[in-house]
Input
Amino acid sequence: MFKIVVCVKQVPDTAGGVKFKADGTLDRGAMLAIMNPDDKAGLEAALRIKEKDPENVKVTLLTMGLPKAEDVLIEGIAMGADDALLVTDRVLGGADTWATSSTIAGALKNMEYDLIITGRQAIDGDTAQVGPQIAEHLAIPTISYAKEINCDTVNKTVEVKRIFDDGYMMVKAQLPALVTCLAELNEPRYMTPGRIFYALDHKDELITVWGRANLDVDDSNIGLKGSPTKIAKASDKVAKGKGTTVTPESPTDAADYILNVLTDKHVI
Amino acid sequence: MDFQLDKKHTMAQSLFKDFAEKEVKPLAIDTDETEEFPRVTVDKMAKNGFLGIAIPEQYGGQGCDPLTYVMCVEELAKVCGTTSVIVSAHSSLCCDPILHYGTEEQKQKYLVPLAKGEKLGAFGLTEPGAGTDAQGVQTKAVLSEDGKEWILNGSKCFITNGKEADVYIIIAYTDVVETKRGKQKKFTAFIVEKGTEGFTFGTKEHKMGIRGSATYELIFQDCHIPVENQLGPRGKGFPIAMGTLDGGRIGIAAQALGLAEGALDRTIAYVKERKQFGRSISAFQNTQFQLANLATEVEAAKLLVYRAAEAKRTKDRFSVEAAQAKLFAAETAMNVTTKCVQLLGGYGYIREYEVERMMRDAKITEIYEGTSEVQRMVISGDLLK
Amino acid sequence: MIEKNLEEYKGIAIYAQQVDGKLSNIALELLGKARELANDLDDKTVTAVLIGENVGGLTDELAKYGADRVVVIDDPELKDYRTEPYTQALAGYINEFKPEIVLVGATAIGRDLGPRTSARVETGLTADCTVLEIGDFPLVAAPGTEQKHKQLLMTRPAFGGNTIATIACPDHRPQMATVRPGVMQKIAPIADAKAEVVNWKPALDKNNCYVEIEKVVKEVSNVADIAEAKILVSGGRGVGSAENFKLLDDLAEVLHGTVSCSRAVVDNGWKPKELQVGQTGKTVRPHVYFAIGISGAIQHVAGMEESDIIIAINKDETAPIFDVADYGIVGDLNKIVPLLTDKIKTALASKNA
Output
């Protein structure tokens, strides 16, 4: 059985629907929780590999998060993944990318995998670090920024179109390896009604829940305490107030006004 | 009695809503303008299992319940009346009768590809002389000499998914019997495939609404079909048609509900933005009270529609629930869309704002698959029996 | 994590990204920032780490832009970028030379090399920093916690840009950060600058993490996707003609922005549909949206109202666009826009001089 593990993250929909409270501050709780777009593309890539040989390819989802993160696992199974693993535990909270990647690698060390697919970055953290760091902890090759993935499940190699700022490379790696995907990789499929019912009817068999005890990782590398980077301060964007309209005396005044705005806002 | 949807249904609902917003909504205006059948959308829906939602998995379907199917039609109708009726006619009027009355061979041969969306279905009962008066059906089926074929002659009109569909359930009369009331025709249901010699298509109707829906005349001239294509017992065509229409009514009720909701949603957004006399028109009590009335009507329609879907799931007979749902939802759709056009004022008359299309689409829900008058007959017939 | 003596880590290093023997601009920008940060550090040495094959010739340019020292790691295996050999090189440098700060460009290379390297040397990494400063952590001294000084404070947007966070890495070294191109400034080049050149190489172990490059293709991207643009200069019916869009093209060019338009413009055939913003066009959320000669009908606004800064120019003071604009200017776009373009050109020129 060729095993693909797709790492997914449940994130607030910052791209689509930022919500503010009445006082103008960010209302994270009210925002829709979705499967991170880069990860969804990764899942779609895995499902396409599975489609070529359904009996011999298994797609397992893996996520680290709060218990409600199981929603993205249900969604992923409803799209076609075979089963899923939810890693959740209070001690894992507050983790930076080092601790997060160590935790996820700690789960993977107790799983079987031929190919690991992750999204390039999450729309809340925006770091693009966790994927490559997981690969480092597992001592397997990383190929990031994948725009195309061709997997040879028999010979156990993967060939990737790896995007750079000025072009791309076709890169080939021996499996096991980890590939990070761009959302532009593909158009992810929809769930089907039948698989939604199947996933929810069999949730307890399909989704395994692991806590800290099931992970092969050191305490010094998990959670807030295991995070080398620390937050000094953080402030949320505030909802925009009403704008101002001016009627300058002359076009020159108008141009100056706009120039000041652009300078003030560090646009130029 | 739990008025909350469970997670399976809320997830399915957001799937349908997502699909409708992304795939169907952008094409709705064009579909209406060009009157072109949205084949690309149908193919996408097929791929995602939307054409076999309530069909059991063993027959290639999704294995969900009638309520899930109703939600699909509803969400599609919110953005495009045409697309929603394609799914409804295919599912309720073609897949369902084969599921309930078909032999195992017929199910394997027809239901499986229909449920998978590999084939599209339709249903033909109505004729120029037979609308509400189904006894007026003149299409005749005669058994061949060797008993191996049925030969059909006649025509059907106003057939939804006509020419686009691959599989047609056709009601024709096979016998005439003497009863106390005089000579009565006895009907039988048949499965006829597009492409069968002697089966052709006539006029394409140009309609007030659901303009992208393919509405065609079907013509049978010495059309030979195998005797295996008889659906259900000979002479039982009328009860089969009525039973099928009971289910179909729930689909149309869902379409009407969706149209009303779609119009109302747009109107609420519009009245908040539109300013007259220095304020949003949503600040005026007339606007507020109208919307309150419309929203309440829509909720009532929704409850009747969902109740009918659940009745189909749990009961053998659900004609009354289906009739009440269709009657109320269709009249609600007509009322809500008309009032919404008025609330949008001049913009309500402009095609780009889409609400006028919803009003044109809504009208047919009061007419097809049993006019509102027929629904009243069904309901009062049950009350006064 | 491995125990390190933090005191041993001194000086500031930058990854001098080069592709095909040409230094990327980001490398020079990082040098500029490193020079500035070095002023607040005890050890003010700025090192550029140059990794590749036959790249020795680039050391002078690095010196011109602020490097005191260039460590050159040159090997055939390093000809084209691959994660593992480059990580071995950079991590090897870090473990040997022990810089207290390492800056990497947040490019398609850096955002792969950075995390792998930071994990290899077991330290923290902060991505896409927009501000870097030397300061105290915690920012305000609190009783019971040690306040460390001369720490790298890394500020970055998160949560899709809706949150600004300042991060420190107090207990691990080096402190690593990636920085996007165009954020930091390179210094004015010093004509005869010379840097100390150190040719060095760790043992490159061709292990299981090496991948095979089958093909390298260079591509210049074509039509700008308005949904990706950070600055949109959008025109409506008020622009008047296809030819007059030149005013907007010029403004967009000087701002490194992209031109977009309203539906009326597409209907008139002045611009293609790909550039249309609105309900039946595209939804955009750029940092700056110029609405020029656009009335602001609901269908257009729906496609751009989430932009960070909306600047509207329209001669009609009752135009609904002024209800959504952050900065509304009532006036004649034909006069204002060219003046604005000139003023911006002048302002940028004096900035870079």
Observations:
- Chain A has a mean pLDDT of 92.
- Chain A is about 30% helix and 30% strand.
